[in-house]
Design a protein that fits this description.
Blueprint: H1 6-17, H2 22-31, H3 36-47, E1 77-79, E2 84-91, E3 95-100, H4 105-115, E4 120-121, E5 124-125, E6 132-133, E7 141-145, H5 151-164, E8 174-179, E9 185-188, H6 199-203, E10 209-216, E11 222-223, E12 226-228, E13 233-235, E14 242-246, E15 260-262, E16 265-267, E17 270-278
Antiparallel strand pairs: 1-2, 2-3, 3-14, 4-7, 5-6, 7-8, 8-17, 9-15, 10-14, 10-17, 11-16, 12-13, 12-15
Helix pairs in contact: 2-3
Amino acid sequence: MPELTAEWQAWLTENQQRGCSSESMVSAMVQAGFDALEAGALVRLFRAGQSAVVAPPAAQTKGSYVYDAWPMPLGNRLDGGDRVATVAMRCEQPQVLVLDDVLSTEECAEVIARSQAKLRRSTTVDPSSGAEQVIAQRSSEGTFFALCEDEFIARLDARIARLMGWPLENGEGLQILRYGVGGEYRPHFDYFPPDDPGSAKHIAQGGQRVATLVIYLNTVAEGGATIFPDAGLSVSPRQGSAVYFRYANGQGQLDPLSLHGGAPVEAGEKWIMTKWMRERRYGA
């Protein structure tokens, strides 16, 4: 019989040793782009000590992404429960919103104060292994807060989930990043590329990422814009404002126009807080 790729063999071995159920392994493979019936057959064969061939997950045809309805009601204002944000700009393709008044000045200062002592060099996901790694393309320091880890963070998590129109429990913990002069994050996608074997271990913990909210904790003196190079969009960082972008539709397609980055900071520093939302409960 033909064989699975070495990367997927290693992933299946690791998850079997961890005691993962066949159902969870199949689910992760489906989220990574496999056909459901094919994934089920492959897991059964693997557990039986056999091997099988598998074609790479089907590539999405360029230009085939379908823009479906936004997950939140859209007008000039968005209700975050304890705070109302103003919609300053909306783009339909890709789906991008610029929001004002997401956080107060005092809340921004509180997040920065809580984060300063915990900052560490930021990492990204290795496409082959799924492990965290430091890369030159991302020159920032960061830290995380667990979901609803205390009363203050819980209030922010609840507000952000409501603004994004997505369940609170589907959110990853808040990530805080600081960029100094010259700091940047070159264009990338926030979703986990289905063709990368390393994506499977992350997709297994709540499914694919579907949307991002980047909140600016300070007003940057020069530079530091959030850029969408293929869409010709640029958002300047202003304290308390945010940029929301959605990149996964109800069909499970991923939007290539969501390619984005953080332009170099030219003067001062840049502090941001990021929330990523998943398809289902994160960690489940």
